[in-house]
Amino acid sequence: MFNPNQFTVLYIMVYQYLEEIGAVEEKDVQTYEVLDYLFKSKGFNFRDSLVAVSYLFQNNLRNQELLDK
User: Fold this and answer.
1) Which of 8, 32, 37, 67 is the most buried (most CB within 10 A)?
2) Is there a contact between 67 and 56 (Cβ–Cβ < 8 Å)?
């Protein structure tokens, strides 16, 4: 039962944690492309909305700009 939307958010959160503890040295371009898209897009389709909401919940609703969208 693979759910790519949840997997995307899980991957982003794990990668951000690994960056915080210094386990990875280079930034993963694909991870930041997804985040850039979420923060710069003016509108979302249903799939994008699921990823954005999952990301917000995993970050304890810390991004007001994304919440406003």
Assistant:
1) 8
2) yes
d(CA 21, CA 1): 31
Distance, in Å, from the CA atom of 4 to the CA atom of 53, rounded to the nearest integer, reads 14
pTM of the entire predicted model: 0.57
**Segment 17-47, tens digit of pLDDT:** 888 888 877 776 677 787 788 778 887 787 7
Residues 6+ apart with CB under 8 A from 56: 62, 63, 66, 67
Q: Residue 23 has what pLDDT?
A: 84
H-only helix segments in 1-69:
4-20, 29-40, 46-58, 64-68
Tell me how long the chain is. 69
